[in-house]
Design a protein that fits this description.
Elements lengths: L11 H53 L4 H37 L1 H35 L4 H70 L3 H13 L11 H10 L4 H14 L5 H42 L1
Length: 318
């Protein structure tokens, strides 16, 4: 790069300045991109944390609701689906940090090394120019001192050979720097788009499930159940409650300690970046089973409503 073959070629200084400007430009632009993508990833992580909190609040509401059984079941299913969405969002954050932000952060060191290579080349160039000045002075002041002139010429030849090797290496390094910059920028931007597409695709799928879970809430049945409870609220705490009523109470609050511990542990693991990948597989694998369990729970709830009506009629007849 530093060897011009004609008068139109750039001088050493102009070429060095051009390379220096390219390195500075890449360092600034990649630094700005790194900061912007880093902020994006951190804000996405905050959205994930707020989603976890929302799922927890909905879960607590489902556990505390003992009258509107259909609403309780729907809220419980919705909390599971929202938790799964935030698990995918957690994967999105981790991939952004690894495949986008991490790659951009490396360019601070890459640009530093490129600048050091340029500085070394310019030092070699200055050494060559110094040897040339020594030779010119020797020819001017002692033109007949062949020994000194020959020595100066040999030193200049050595400096020129070193300059030639260094300039060739810098040319190759500069071309490699530019090619790698283009390829990596294209790659990390593609990674960013694919990461976002993957998350939003999964989010749309799960939000569709969430919409159906909300639609499955039987507000009429819950209202009728509320009216029955309102007419005879003492039946909930009656000392002479039958075995059938005990079974109904169990169905109305189907939550088990094991399930509570599992959900709490899952939310805890979701906030841990180191374990979120394994937890994501476990959660994703169990989501279908939990949703199937929720469907069975809805069927049991419908049957329990019929049982409650029969129990109420028997109690009134007594």
């Amino acid at each position: 790069m530093f060897r011009g073959e004609n008068s139109h070629s750039l001088s050493y200084e102009q070429q060095a300045k051009f390379i220096q400007d390219r390195i500075t430009s890449v360092e600034k632009n990649f630094g700005d991109l790194c900061v912007a993508f880093g902020d994006y990833a951190r804000k996405t992580a905050r959205v994930r944390d707020m989603g976890d909190e929302l799922a927890k609040v909905i879960k607590d509401y489902a556990n505390n609701e003992i009258v509107n059984k259909s609403l309780s079941s729907g809220l419980d299913n919705l909390s599971i689906t929202l938790t799964a969405i935030e698990e995918y969002r957690n994967c999105e954050v981790q991939r952004l940090e690894a495949k986008v932000v991490g790659e951009l952060c490396q360019y601070e060191t890459i640009c530093k090394h490129a600048r050091e290579e340029l500085k070394h080349t310019m030092n070699v160039r200055e050494k060559e120019m110094a040897r040339k000045k020594v030779l010119d002075k020797a020819r001017e002041r002692q033109p007949f001192n062949r020994q000194q002139v020959t020595y100066a010429e040999s030193e200049l030849i050595k400096a020129s050979a070193e300059m030639s090797r260094t300039a060739k290496g810098l040319s190759e390094q500069t071309e490699f720097f530019e090619r790698r910059k283009l390829q990596q920028l294209k790659s990390l931007l593609s990674n960013f788009v694919m990461i976002e597409m993957t998350f939003h695709t999964k989010a749309v799928e799960l939000l569709t499930v969430a919409y159906q879970q909300i639609a499955d809430i039987n507000d009429r049945a819950d209202l009728e159940n509320f009216k029955r409870k309102l007419r005879s609220p003492e039946k909930q705490v009656s000392a002479g409650i039958s075995a059938r009523s005990l079974s109904l109470a169990t169905l109305m609050n189907p939550q088990s300690p094991i399930k509570d511990n599992s959900d709490t542990a899952s939310l805890g693991r979701l906030r841990s970046p180191d374990k979120s990948a394994a937890v994501g597989k476990q959660r994703s694998g169990s989501l279908a089973a939990l949703m199937n369990q929720s469907s069975s729970k809805d069927e049991e709830t419908t049957d329990s409503e019929s049982d409650e009506e029969e129990s109420s009629e028997e109690t009134e007849s007594r």
